[in-house]
Specification:
By secondary structure, this protein is α+β, with helices and mostly antiparallel strands. It has helices spanning 11-26, 40-52, 160-169, 194-209, and strands at 30-36, 58-59, 63-72, 75-83, 87-104, 109-119, 133-144, 147-157, 173-180, 216-218.
């Protein structure tokens, strides 16, 4: 097994994130790091940098999505309406299995998480539902396997009309996330350990916010 050179400013964060990578490897889930409370100026800088980078394996178009969350029995179901050349719908229950709050020195907060998505049969959806939350999302994805970088502008409300009003007023939430989405054969390499993935993921997070290395520390739960 090859030795991993972990930069000292992220050593503690790597040790905290590695168990989430272990958990991700054991189950059918998503592993992401998402920035919290991004400012518009930082979001625009990141988007410009991503568009100027020439080594992506794939760059998607801006996509429009509407996300409706509502109760079906004891479950909080999310219906995702994906608007491309045609309209597609997907219904699922999302659950956070484990999460980790991270503080980047002078660069705000981020959140690592392992999340599951359980599909819901359309036949189990009532004919009428009352959303508890509606999000309008405009998203673009940049891929360089096994990584996906999602950038989104999001408008939220308790109903579609309230979310549309937030959009018209420019009440925008800026969302950037890094998703680890490996092919199953990825783990065949002895180099690809959970610690290696945690280190790589945190370094990519730092690269997004700073041209220089910055310290990343886990935020103690309850603080």
């Amino acid at each position: 097994m090859s030795q991993i050179n972990i930069p000292r400013p992220v050593t503690v964060a790597v040790h905290a994130l590695t168990p989430l990578v272990d958990l991700f490897r054991e189950m059918d889930a998503r592993l992401t790091i998402r920035f919290v409370d991004l400012e518009e100026s930082r979001f625009d800088e990141v988007c410009d940098a991503m568009h100027s980078y020439g080594e992506w394996s794939e760059v998607g178009e801006w996509e429009d999505m509407h996300e409706y969350t509502y109760a079906v029995g004891a479950d909080a179901v999310q219906t995702n309406v994906h608007i491309r050349n045609s309209v597609s719908l997907a219904h699922a229950v999302h659950a956070c299995v484990e999460s980790l709050e991270l503080r980047l020195l002078n660069h705000g907060l981020a959140r690592g998480s392992v999340d599951t998505e359980t599909a819901v049969d359309p036949a189990d959806i009532p004919e009428t539902v009352t959303p508890s939350s509606v999000r309008i999302r405009k998203r673009k994805t940049f891929c360089r396997e096994p990584w996906k970088f999602h950038v989104s502008r999001v408008w939220t409300g308790g109903s579609r009309s309230v979310a549309e009003e937030a959009q018209s007023k420019g009440e925008t939430v800026y969302d950037i996330s890094i998703e680890f989405a490996p092919d199953p054969s990825y783990w065949n390499s002895p180099r690809h350990t959970s610690t290696y993935v945690a280190t790589s993921m945190l370094m990519k997070m730092v690269d997004i916010v700073s041209p220089e290395m910055v310290s990343v520390e886990p935020v103690p739960q309850g603080s």
